[in-house]
């Protein structure tokens, strides 16, 4: 493939040499930049196609004629291309001249056959069209017109164009045969005129011999079947997909939303462009592009300050795929060019197109043949809900941009319990991303590089196709019989070398396929916008409030997951790998889809910056917790909340909170006689910890205990944990925690050991960061590679402002108030009692002597010294002055507060309340009534005076 010496026919040669010289030109211009870094290691010559030989070209009049023809063709073609949605096929691949010819032929035949034009030229046309196909000549303008439009708009889709042409020919010939039968089966002896008035020469040839052997009816039946087959070929419809295609066609014709193209395609296993092709529209209408604001792409457009209170510059953090190096597009293009390995000539587009024709296998495997992605072993899960459902199946390989229809398919005005109306944020707060690419030059270059590498090492295998995801493309390799899989896997380093990427991941086999998958990062990555994920068919299939947009898989299918079914998730990855972005997508998904009545959240953000944007959203039950100590307490509160919910479940005889809630809504849960409690449905509770390591450093045992209790039991109580960490080491993600957090999301880790901690297998160390992740939902045996959804800071702020405008946050005071009061400092540890005695002794005697402590407290020298250090650190005594006793800094009158502080008895409520950021509109009485309401079992009165807030309280107690 690298050398091409056989002489091509003149015309072809000229076209090819254009492209080839372009390649040669690129090669030359590359030399100065690449010279040092990329000297070709192999000396295989880069073939340079011959320069155009002008002396051999056609004579001037012919060239002029050709130029005029091509000029007219390209004017007409450009007009056709701007029809509907714009297409812009590559210049090199255009076939405007041929398309123009077909169009003129269609017009000429229509003029003669439809409008009965007469005259000598018309007679010639009629003789050619009608003489050949008889009555079927009436259909010829249609067919030629379709061919012309396809050549203008999609000249590069050789396979589809050829398929349609073949199908049309089948219809044409079979139709002529039928016309021949209907026209009285004229023979040659009846004269050409009689033939023309039936099925023409073609009809005579097709039906004549057959009908003389068989009778008319079987032949007619055969021909009808041939027409049917032709229609199937034109529309690329396998037999088994006929019903679903008809259904889709019906829906389309009836103007129903053919939306769920993802679902249909999954069922059908094919692109549905045929539908539109069949209607002559030649292309599936893509969803309307969003209009740009002020010349900027909507995604980049600043969100208006009206919503945010911020200026119009957007927020830092809006940029996906941050790059430290500021570089221009040209340079990127050069880099992509450089990704072609040394010794491999970048194939021209014509060659690639020709190559594609040769391939017997489709580029993409019809998803219907791919296995449903239900994770194996799912049914073995103890849970009542099948594990597989944790993951809502990703859709088909190639996803066009989804139409920006509203995100939740339910009433916009959601009625909260009570009479508060709550409007979810409008869907366009999360704008659509750029349309995904099916294939790019970078992919073609990699296919060439892979083929070359396998050739070079004499491995009998070929690249049969690829599916392009936003970050990586999975190239499929099929082995010839007798070739060992190991031959390819052993080439991993050479493949890395050939494609100039160290992040090559080999899947052997691709789950559910007899093919080896090679995942190679795209040099032209694409951002996956959260809006697109939430608008995808999968997300709209359910209105479960805990559904979040995860991202896109390697095949370009949207991945959406239900957090309630995970039921707990560990998110890990090195710095900058994309954890926080994932957490942001998760929270934004919830805010976009659910009311505070449905989902409440506890956010722990020890890093203090990651989640601050969400401060004040009504879904929070406590201000965002930034102190690791408070976080540990909050976890203990969650345990108590869980116990409370369990008590309710047990008392009323339900196994899952969903059943309980349903019963409450149906009025089936009646509190015991005499109780003033008003039972309300429990919202889901999502606890998000953005850095587990910080918590584990402060109180490892407490935190671990709480997490384990929550994770073991909370599922049925509707409480779900999401733990994120950038240190997935065994001291942070302990065995116990791991065992109880079944779903994992691994972003790029810094080592294979970390990958093993998160996923129990290597792989995450090979990810390329910035949202590239391996997602292992509960029950799945193999992780799925996804590119995480991206939501910009501006979008987050806009959503948050909207949500906050709907309802004010009222925090649950008991989250911290009820927490254990003792906060014994770590350095005191078990010595609290003896330290209290020492303090009392020193302060009452006003004598800071170590030997006195030794004597009076009967402790050794070392311990007495340590106690004195502790007293110094707490400001009870001054620094050591050699052998002299230390100064005592606390007067006997102040002893009590000092002792209380050591015991950790400091009044926790005051700072807590201060930190509670004055829950909006909460008056002291109300606080008191809420605190009381916590012990709801003894029937605390729920009839607060603020009817509004009452309606959506966390537990309805
Ligand atoms: N899904 C994504 N799509 C596009 N770019 C992303 C994505 N996720 C992350 N990035 C890019 O990577 C940068 C770092 O991501 P992020 O802050 O989420 O990493 P992190 O793992 O949370 O790091 P840290 O632990 O240091 O907070 C982002 O600013 C963004 O530019």
UniProtKB/TrEMBL annotation:
Residues 1-58, 935-957 are annotated as: Disordered. Residues 1-18 have a biased composition (Polar residues). It comes from the Bacteria. CDD domains: TrwB_TraG_TraD_VirD4. Essential cell division protein that coordinates cell division and chromosome segregation. The N-terminus is involved in assembly of the cell-division machinery. The C-terminus functions as a DNA motor that moves dsDNA in an ATP-dependent manner towards the dif recombination site, which is located within the replication terminus region. Required for activation of the Xer recombinase, allowing activation of chromosome unlinking by recombination. This is DNA translocase FtsK. Keywords: ATP-binding, Cell cycle, Cell division, Cell membrane, Chromosome partition, DNA-binding, Membrane, Nucleotide-binding, Transmembrane, Transmembrane helix. GO terms for biological process: cell division; chromosome segregation. Belongs to the FtsK/SpoIIIE/SftA family. GO terms for cellular component: plasma membrane. It is a multi-pass membrane protein. It comes from Arthrobacter cheniae.
């Amino acid at each position: 493939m690298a050398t091409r010496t056989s002489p091509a026919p003149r015309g072809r040669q000229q076209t090819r040499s254009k492209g080839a010289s372009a390649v040669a030109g690129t090669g030359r211009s590359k030399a100065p930049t690449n010279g040092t870094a990329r000297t070709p290691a192999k000396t295989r010559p880069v073939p340079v196609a011959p320069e155009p030989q002008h002396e051999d070209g056609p004579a001037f009049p012919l060239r002029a004629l050709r130029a005029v023809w091509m000029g007219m063709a390209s004017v007409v073609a450009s007009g056709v291309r701007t029809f509907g949605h714009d297409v812009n096929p590559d210049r090199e691949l255009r076939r405007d001249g041929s398309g123009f010819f077909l169009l003129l032929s269609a017009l000429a035949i229509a003029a003669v056959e439809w409008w009965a034009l007469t005259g000598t030229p018309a007679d010639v046309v009629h003789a050619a069209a009608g003489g050949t196909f008889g009555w079927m000549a009436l259909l010829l303008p249609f067919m030629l017109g379709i061919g012309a439009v396809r050549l203008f708009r999609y000249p590069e889709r050789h396979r589809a164009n050829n398929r349609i042409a073949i199908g049309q020919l089948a219809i044409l010939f079979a139709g002529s045969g039928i016309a021949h039968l209907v026209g009285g089966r004229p023979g040659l002896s009846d004269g050409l005129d009689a033939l023309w008035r039936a099925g023409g020469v073609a009809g005579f040839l097709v039906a004549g011999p057959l009908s003389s052997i068989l009778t008319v009816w079987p032949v007619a039946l055969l021909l009808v079947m041939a027409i049917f087959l032709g229609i199937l070929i034109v529309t690329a419809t396998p037999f088994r997909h006929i019903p679903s295609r008809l259904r889709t066609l019906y829906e389309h014709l009836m103007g129903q939303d053919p939306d769920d193209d993802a679902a249909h395609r999954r069922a059908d296993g094919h692109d549905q462009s045929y539908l539109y092709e069949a209607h002559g529209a030649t292309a599936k209408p893509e969803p309307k592009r969003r209009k740009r604001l002020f010349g900027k792409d909507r995604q980049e457009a600043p969100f208006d300050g009206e919503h945010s209170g911020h200026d119009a510059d957007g927020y830092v953090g809006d940029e996906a795929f941050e790059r430290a190096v500021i570089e221009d597009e040209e340079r990127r293009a050069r880099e992509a060019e450089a990704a072609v390995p040394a010794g491999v000539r970048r194939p021209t587009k014509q060659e690639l197109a020709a190559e594609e024709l040769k391939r017997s296998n489709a580029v993409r495997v019809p998803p219907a043949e791919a296995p449903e992605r239900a994770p194996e072993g799912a049914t073995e899960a103890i849970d009542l809900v099948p594990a597989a459902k944790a993951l809502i199946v990703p859709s088909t390989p190639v996803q066009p941009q989804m139409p920006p229809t509203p995100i939740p398919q339910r009433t916009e005005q959601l009625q909260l319990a009570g009479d508060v109306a709550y409007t979810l944020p409008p869907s366009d707060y999360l704008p659509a991303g750029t349309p995904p690419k099916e294939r790019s030059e970078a992919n073609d270059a990699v296919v060439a590089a892979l083929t070359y590498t396998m050739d070079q090492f004499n491995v009998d295998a070929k690249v049969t196709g690829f599916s392009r995801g936003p970050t990586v493309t999975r190239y499929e390799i099929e082995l010839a019989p007798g070739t060992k899989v190991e031959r390819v896997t052993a080439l991993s380093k050479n493949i890395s070398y050939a494609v100039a990427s160290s992040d090559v991941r080999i899947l052997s086999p691709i789950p559910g396929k007899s093919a080896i998958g090679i995942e190679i990062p795209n040099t032209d990555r694409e951002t996956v916008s959260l809006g697109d994920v939430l608008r995808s068919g999968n997300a709209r299939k359910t209105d479960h409030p805990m559904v979040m947009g995860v991202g896109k898989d390697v095949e370009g299918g949207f991945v959406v997951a239900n957090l309630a079914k995970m039921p707990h998730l560990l998110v890990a990855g090195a710095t900058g790998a994309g954890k926080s972005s994932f957490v942001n997508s998760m929270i934004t998904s919830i805010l976009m889809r659910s009311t505070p009545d449905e989902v409440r959240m506890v956010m722990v953000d020890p890093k203090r910056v990651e989640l601050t944007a969400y401060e004040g959203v009504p879904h929070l039950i406590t201000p965002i917790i930034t102190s690791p100590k408070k976080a540990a307490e909050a976890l203990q509160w969650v345990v108590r909340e869980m116990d409370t919910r369990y008590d309710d479940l047990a008392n009323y005889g339900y196994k899952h909170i969903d059943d309980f809630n349903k019963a409450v809504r149906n009025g089936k849960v009646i509190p015991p006689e005499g109780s003033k409690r008003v039972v309300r449905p429990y919202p889901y509770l999502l606890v998000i910890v953005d850095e587990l390591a910080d918590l584990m450093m402060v109180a490892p045992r407490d935190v671990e205990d709480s997490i384990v209790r929550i994770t073991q039991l909370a599922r049925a109580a509707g409480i779900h944990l999401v733990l994120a960490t950038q240190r997935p080491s065994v001291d942070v993600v302990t065995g116990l925690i791991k065992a109880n957090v079944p779903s994992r999301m691994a972003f790029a880790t810094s080592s294979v050991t970390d990958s093993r901690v998160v996923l129990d297998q290597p792989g995450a160390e090979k990810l390329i960061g910035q949202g590239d992740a391996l997602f292992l939902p509960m029950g799945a045996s193999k992780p799925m590679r996804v590119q995480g959804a991206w939501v910009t800071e501006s979008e987050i702020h806009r959503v948050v402002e909207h949500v906050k405008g709907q309802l004010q946050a009222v925090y649950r005071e008991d989250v911290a108030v009820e927490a254990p009061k003792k906060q014994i400092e770590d350095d005191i540890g078990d010595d609290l009692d003896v330290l209290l005695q020492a303090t009392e002794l020193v302060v009452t005697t006003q004598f800071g002597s170590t030997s006195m402590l030794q004597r009076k407290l009967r402790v050794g020298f070392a311990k007495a010294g340590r106690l004195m250090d502790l007293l110094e650190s707490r400001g009870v005594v001054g620094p050591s002055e050699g052998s002299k006793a230390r100064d005592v800094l606390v007067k006997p009158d102040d002893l009590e507060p000092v002792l209380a502080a050591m015991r950790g008895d400091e009044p926790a409520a005051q700072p807590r309340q201060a930190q509670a950021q004055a829950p909006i509109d909460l008056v002291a009485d109300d606080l008191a009534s809420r605190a009381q309401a916590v012990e709801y079992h003894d029937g605390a009165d729920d009839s607060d005076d603020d009817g509004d807030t009452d309606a959506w309280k966390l537990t309805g107690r």
